[in-house]
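Quick entry, no commentary yet.
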Amino acid sequence: SWWGAGPGLGLEQVGVRWTQLQALPGEPAQTNVHLKGRDLLTLQNYTAEEIKYLLWVASDLKRRIKHKGEYLPLLQGKSLAMIFEKRSTRTRLSTETGFALLGGHPCFLTTQDIHLGVNESLTDTARVLSGMTDAILARVYKQSDLDLLAKEASIPVINGLSDSYHPIQIVADYLTLQEHYGRLNGLTISWIGDGNNVLNSIMMSAAKLGMHLHVATPKSFEPDHRIIKIAEQYSKEYGTKLLLTTDPLEAASGANVLVTDTWISMGQEQEKIERLRAFQGYQITMQTAKAAASDWTFLHCLPRKPEEVEDRVFYSSRSLVFQEAENRKWTIMAVMVSLLTDYSPQLQKPTF
């Protein structure tokens, strides 16, 4: 089957094999996972089967819409409130174009349109939006704002990024790895960089899918100790390896996937000099890759700065960053469809 295809085979190269996975025409595949009406605030709240289901739906939508040219107005008549306290390229474009492609109407709201908790309480905003739209995607600073929105809203709330987590990015990363390697189980991810929201979301989910995780961060830039404790519990529960170190080469050793992110997130601009000094030696280079597995690949959620990863890695054939960026669209579409409809994929469930 396609999911057993060898390393390096992306969707385009093996798309011809997708027919082996399809259910009979007109017969959606069966699933016991039902996410309609749920929030997506953190992958900590999602089981292994629920994360796999989102990946399944994303693969299905990508196949049907991109490769077969089908029109699927699954969200016709539905609207989405998009609250953005932080600017974005990929989150905004993937959500707006994806929701519209499915027949829905996305409404983009900046701080000039809606200032959470300032001009109106979060409780009142949640209730107003619940009466006018079908879901909320919020890209905010404080995770607590998302939690309160979700508590007070009667519609699904999706985390488009917070200072604590970035779950929709990680679902896209996993889809990208699955397309490339044909599996997730058994892969080793090496994170080299800041202990930030993106890493937190990996730590809340990788072990559930059978992936090992090596993390290298400078001293004082480690993930939150509460996140580490939960990740250690997951690692023990799912029988995976979790390594925490300050040595980038130790983290890269034997890894299939090298991952980094910006060293200076939005809101941290005043720390730039201190951070650049602290992250000396953490740039991912071809020298770093020599310590990795022979089938190594590279991921970065973008935007990227040269000090984080050298051009020879970033623009190499091992870099999956632009496939990863495109998959933001298919995965957020899968999230919307899963939380707002009873859609069942037509592809048979992949082996993860």
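second:
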Amino acid sequence: MVKLATARESRLYGPWLSRNRWEYINAGLYVFATILLLCGFVSLLSDISAKSGLILLVISLVFITLVNAHDLFAHLAGIDYRIALIGFDLQLGLVEFAVPIIQGLGSILFFIGVLFVFIQAERGHGHYKLGRHALNLLIAGPILWLIGSVHDACQIYERADGHVQILQQSVHIPFLMGSLLVLVGSVLNRDGHRWLLYGLELLGMSWIVLGIIGSLLFLIGGLMNLVKVFKMQQMDGIRLEKLRGGAQDRLVREREGQVPLILEEQRRRKRQIEEARTAPSPAPVSVPGGTPYKDVLVGQA
């Protein structure tokens, strides 16, 4: 459950205005998804609105998966989708590439687990095996969230000021604690032998309460991420410097080696002019015979 707070200098995809717009949309969509997630867990406290709560959980998980897909697209676009460059940049592979995939897979597993519970609640006592699978999936999803949160917190900077580091940690810590609480709730729910129960009875009070607290932490992290995106775009100069010698540096060097045709033509003409200036001038050739014009005038006088 992470909106990736990348250590890169910027998201290198699309024009500047379009990039900023998509960053705001992405951060706002995550906040909206966490609000739906929180409302879904709260709705499970009442038997009347329990099924509606499951629907809200499913919708929120779809949005969270889309947010992580956007993060993956943004990081791959920063290196022109050259997957081979990941081998030269450890942080790009373990954080910026792996974290969105892990978080997206965790959201998908949690989505399937909630969906299995909803199917059991809707169709009656005809799908007994779905209950055990649902409980296992509700554990597997938060495990991946927790792994992704730990990876996301292990970012290394070349240089960063204190303000930027506070913004980064204000995003990392709520996501890490929220993922841990949801995982603990799922494990306690599984150890309560709830696989013998059915439908909404699979979801115990411990899972719901810890899910509410975890969702609240996700919401806090999403709001802080929104603040971080705004502050990072309003800052003058680079206050979070990317690691040197990584994939983006290699890509920049490759781009500098590929000179556009217009610049190449200008360089060729400049080279020709310099060669013409440095070439030795030919010696003057004397023309034999003939009378100078001045002598002709004196003779006529």
